[in-house]
Amino acid sequence: MFEALIQKEAKLAVVGLGYVGLPLAMEFAKRFSVVGYDINEERLAAMRRGEDPCGELPSEAFVGGDILFTADKSRLAEARFFVIAVPTPIDSHNEPDLNPLLGATRTVAACLKRGDYVVYESTVYPGCTEEDCLPLLEEISGLKVGVDFKLGYSPERINPGDKVHTLTNTMKIVSGCDAEALAEIARVYGAVIMAGLHQAPSIRVAEAAKIIENTQRDVNIALMNELSILFDRMGINTYDVLQAAGTKWNFLPFSPGLVGGHCIGVDPYYLVHKAKELQYHPKMINSGRFVNDSMGRYIGKKVVKKIISQGKNIVGSRVLVMGMTFKENVSDIRNTKVADIVAELNDFGAIVDVVDPQASPQEVQRAYGIPLLERPSGKYDAIVLAVAHEAYRRLEEADFLVWANSKVVFADLKGIFRGRIHQMCYWSL
Which of 45, 70, 76, 129 is the most buried (most CB within 10 A)? Predict the structure, then answer.
């Protein structure tokens, strides 16, 4: 398969051109002939113009690549190597929503041919590729895995907004349904991944490796969040504590904060789901999820208490929330916990304005029903620095005071202005 791809006698298809699929497709397009498939025509039009709808890739990344951007399913039939990189969200009950994954599987299965390869990149629970996706591939195509086509799994490791740990310089995990599949899949990914490959012994191991990467981070951040609640009651600053503890060589550098986005705030629920199937209750994972999912509401209540402590009535108080994305320096608003802060403040009767230099006002309105202002308007009784965008890091106390009423509360969730705020009531996690 690799030789056919490198000679461009066969094409490679990437199904799903989001935060994961598009960077991967553009790297593959430097070496292979690629069919980039997505169901969103608006996004495809941007890509054809050399624009990344996610804002991660520069326009230069689109120059010279051998790629066709299409929503036409029939063009997928031209491919022999399929990479499925669609979202794997959770539903309103925190249960895995496999509809995008299974929908993409059906699309690929309909054009699957003898000798083809199918590799999944979507984050799933261990067993999902072989137990949920494979039966569909075989049923719809009429082909048999290992005999007629090959199956693999290679989890994505892209970190949105991270310009240091990129797709090509981060080691890639690859796996296959048999030794032949693993070898060929490794050759294909090895053509674009410069940091090297780890060949997992099975598809389930690769699935598990990916999901615990984010679960580990989730649990560690939950510990920091719980400690921040405790330290707040003790009257000591969490970041002062972490700075002191961090002087030991083996102290892990985690910090408190909101845990949202499509990975860390979602992936542990996939593991919990599988655990329940096996009649096991994962106490630590669930506890971490509870703590992190509660932080937005907790922060909202703390801001309310701080406003009241300044002798003000919370009903009608004006609050400025700076930042709406799930993390700094990205435009991604998926599963942002800032929405929970806004909801809590609204529930107490506060008037909340939200600004963000990265987020799309249309997407915020559509996803959360929250109007996103271009800039602050008037004076506020509290300013919540919710997301540490670089544009906000460059500000000084004087810049915030322009928007401040007397006795204003300044909530600095990431502690970036610790020791620099003197004329406002300062609080951080």
Answer: 129
Q: By the 8 A CB rule, do 208 and 173 touch?
A: no
What's the pLDDT tens digit per position in 4-31? 999 999 999 999 999 899 999 999 999 9
**What pLDDT was estimated at residue 228?**
97
* CATH architecture classification, 2-201: 3-Layer(aba) Sandwich (3.40)
Q: Quick: pLDDT tens for 382-407.
A: 999 999 999 999 999 999 999 999 99
User: Concatenated DSSP letters for 234-291?
Assistant: HT--HHHHHHHHTTSTT----------TTTTTTHHHHHHHHHHHTT---HHHHHHHHH
Catalytic-role residue among 54, 128, 263, 425: 263
Q: Matching CATH topology for 2-201 and 219-428? A: yes
- Sign, Cα dihedral of 98, 153, 73, 114: negative
CA 224 distance to own-chain centroid: 20
Q: Provide the 10 A C-beta neighbour count for residue 103.
A: 13
Answer whether 375's CB lies under 8 Å from 312's CB: no
pLDDT tens digits, 202-230: 999 999 999 999 999 999 999 999 999 99
Percent of residues, the chain, with pLDDT higher than 90 = 93
Cα separation of 133 and 376, whole Å?
A: 48
- CATH architecture designation of domain 219-428: 3-Layer(aba) Sandwich (3.40)
Q: Check if the beta carbon of residue 53 is closer than 8 Å to that of residue 47.
A: yes
Contact between 33 and 64 (Cβ < 8 Å): no
**What is the arrangement of strands in the sheet containing 150-153, beginning at the earlier edge strand?**
67-70, 34-37, 11-15, 79-84, 117-120, 150-153, 172-176, 197-199
Catalytic: 263?
yes
Measured distance CA(113)–CA(147) in Å, rounded? 11
- In DSSP terms, 117 is beta-bridged to 81, 150
For residues 117 and 149, the answer to whether their CB atoms sit within 8 Å is yes
DSSP three-state, residue 27 = helix
Q: What is the pLDDT of residue 312?
A: 97
Distance CA 300, CA 291 (A): 15
Identify the three-state secondary structure at position 396. Answer: coil
Distance of CA 199 to the CA centre of its chain: 24
Quickly list DSSP for 283-316: HHHHHHHHHHHHHHHHHHHHHHHHHHHTT--STT
In terms of Cα–Cα distance, which of 408, 387, 402 is closest to 310? Answer: 408
Structural domain boundaries of the chain? Answer: 2-201, 219-428
User: Taking the complete model, does pTM exceed 0.85, yes or no?
Assistant: yes
